[in-house]
Amino acid sequence: MSVRWSLVAATAAAFVACALPASAQTLRYANQGELKSLDPYTLKETTTIAHHAHVYEGLTARDKDLKIVPALAESWETLSPTKWRFHLRKGVKFHNGDPFTADDVLFSADRVRAKGSNFLSNVPADAKFTKVDDYTVDVTLDSPNPILISQWDGWYIMDKKWCEENNSVAPTPAAATTPSYASLHENGTGPFMIESHQPGVKTVFKAFPGHWKKPEHNLKEIIFTPIGSDATRVAALLSGEVDVIEPVPLQDIQRVNSSGNATVLTAPEIRTIFVGMDVARDELLFSNVKGKNPFKDIRVREAIYKTIDVELIKSRVMRGMSTPSVLMIAPQLYPLSKDFTRPKLDPDGAKKLLADAGYPSGFEVTMDCPNDRYVNDAAICQAVVGMLARIGVKVNLLAQPKAQYFAKVLKPGGYQTSLFMLGWTPATSDSHNVLHDVLGCRDDPKDSTRGEANLAGYCNKEVDALTDKVLVEPDTAKRDQLIKQAYELVIKDYGYIPLHQQSLAWGVSNKVKLTQRADNQVLLYWATKQGE
Amino acid sequence: MSDAVVPHRNAQVSRAGAGWFRRALDSDIFYSFRRSKLTMVAAAITVLFFLLAIFASWLAVQNPFDPAQLQLINSRISPLWTADGQSPFLLGTDEQGRDVFSAILYGMRISLAVGIAGVIFAGALGIGLGLIAGYFGGVADSVIMRIADVQLTFPAILIALLVNGVAKSLLGNRLDEMSTLAVLVIAIGLSFWVQYARTVRGSVMVEKNKDYVAAAQLIGLPAPKIMLRHVLPNTMGPILVIATINLALAIITEATLSFLGAGMPDTMPSLGTLIRIGNNYLFAGEWWIVAFPGIALAGLILSINLLGDWLRDALNPKLR
Fold this sequence. Notes:
Radius of gyration of chain B: 23 Å
Family (chain B): Belongs to the binding-protein-dependent transport system permease family.
Structural class of chain A: alpha+beta
CATH topology of the largest domain in chain A: Dipeptide-binding Protein, domain 3
Protein name (chain B): Dipeptide transport system permease protein DppC
Strand content of chain B: under 5%
Number of strands of chain A: 19
CATH architecture of chain B: Orthogonal Bundle
Oligomer: heterodimer
Helix content of chain A: 25-40%
Largest interface: A-B, 35 and 28 residues
CATH class of the largest domain in chain A: Alpha Beta
Membrane topology (chain B): Multi-pass membrane protein
Largest sheet of chain A: 11 strands, mixed
Distance between the termini of chain B: 25 Å
Number of strands of chain B: 0
Shape of chain A: globular
Structural class of chain B: mainly alpha
Helix content of chain B: 55-70%
CATH class of chain B: Mainly Alpha
GO biological process, one term (chain B): transmembrane transport
Number of helices of chain B: 14
Number of domains of chain A: 2
Number of domains of chain B: 1
Number of helices of chain A: 15
CATH superfamily of chain B: MetI-like
Shape of chain B: globular
Pfam families (chain B): BPD_transp_1, OppC_N
Largest sheet of chain B: none
Radius of gyration of chain A: 23 Å
């Protein structure tokens, strides 16, 4: 049956492909990092989610201004504060021809919350999905949740039948050593299909002619190649070998703009880059201090906070293209950000604090850092290593490609880190996500997804209590005050060390027009390219 | 000295009071050395590079491996003779405020250390296996030489990448700078042993039929002793040539691995790592970060190669 269906689909696809206008273009895109797994529940990371957005779709999506719009759900309504009803889009087909129905939604809701998934917090654990008919799904909750669907644009719907047939019912964990079928193949409903996928080498996306929506792009094909080397990536853009690159290294922005064949799109990004210290374990995994954890001592955290010079990182490493931050959220997303000032830089005081804490000659610790994820990530980490060395904290830097990095430090890998740098964009564009996912206590018996991205294991019950109030507070002004109290607590605890918000820097050939979204998702289904 | 005026190599053979130094000066090799200006220049440059590397800690203005000595505020300063140059950064600084000159000295130390250790490791392995293959023949010979043949079909850099990759995935996160060094040495050693083994095996097969070996066997010396004490010294000439040329290759291999990101980390850069880092700033006009390490690496390799070529010719009886 399935063979026949895919034959039919393939024939239909070939038919429509021939009928595509002759002006359909091939777009070549290079990113600094690779696309490892095609399983949409493996790695919650912006670049990966954006890649998947071409082939998979959620019930909702976000438009060019990050507003929530209908996608696979045509409309929805709240029957009561704890009961939502979703009306699914009819006539939607997966790439293999299977029809999209309520069963797929129920299946995806289970799969995204199963062991090994990195997207647990996208769909609340207390949400029960029930099928009303083939195109209607009800969601019942234990407690009201006004922001239930705010992360559903990143929860992609998978084909139940296809997953069952291909032994891919369980999500592929990021730390998996052998790839599953779903991590090497896709079967989404999105505007593009993956024609071939060689992890770390090349992925070819082909326009899906059976997509339910009229395309805004004029592409027949997107060829994605990871190009890790900054210089090579820029050279490829300037020579016309690729049409779009992300990111443009800061040192090369001027050159790209003056080249005449490409332009750099820049804008402040809503991602916050920060440093975290493991405060959960009684003994650090990677340190020479045995039997105790120096980061549990607030004086040590304060010392480290006050040694890292974010202004210097801005001027030297980021070449002015960053906004130093005191909060774990970007000022665009939280209006009261202006009320906060960063604790003053004070390396001499830091030395004294360390001595008071019992480490007059410092200590040794390993820092985890990606080297192909954020703008100048490894260089920032190196700068931090240098600054900490001055107060006697010897940091061994382990800068790795993001695939290895995330597999080690994220929840599925067991938070194996003592000191790390991470970036976070609240998928909901709201502080609650930051307070809940990054600053919430891990191992909350009532809420298993709280603190899911809290790699440091920072825990303050007062913050959690405020977070819970934030979730249900309808009044915006009051809500902002609650958020403010929570952030103040985190700053007082020196729980995390925010560094800055980086800048978006996409290199785009002058032949290509596309939309730059502030969450740094490179979405090429909004791209058009002039003919060669 | 009279030998400068009368360059006849047998003239001083019977001179009285000749120590080892005098014997060396009188040798065929030194004679040929003095005849080649290019070789003398190459030797001078090689010695200079070795001295620079050995005395790096005294010559450098900072220890580029010590993060505490890097000041971010000093980042991206151009070389001293340009308009924005600043003392004491002779060749400028990179993005982390690392003095390029100091980084080259320390990086060269790493490159040379990895190169020499790699050559010694490859030599020990190759000589050992070659001796066994040549002396015993039979099954041992077949097995060792077939492995060698198979390995010869791969480029050395591929083998080095493979060994390096396997070691890194085995050691994983426990890999610090020092163990990276060891992994590099092993990777390079394992990719270059074949040449030694084949050369030694050939020489041994010639030597083992000679009378002195038969005599040694007759008085009942054990095989290892005959191999190491009697046969091996007679095969050392070609080994020396291979070792010299391989030193240059080993340094290049290390630089390639580091350039590809599989070698020394950014926090403890070798010449290859410096070139990789600098490569990123080439478009931005910050050429000194890549140019000077590149020149240093090229100079080092070229001079060692010239020395190796000369040594090969000097030791080749057919060319005399």
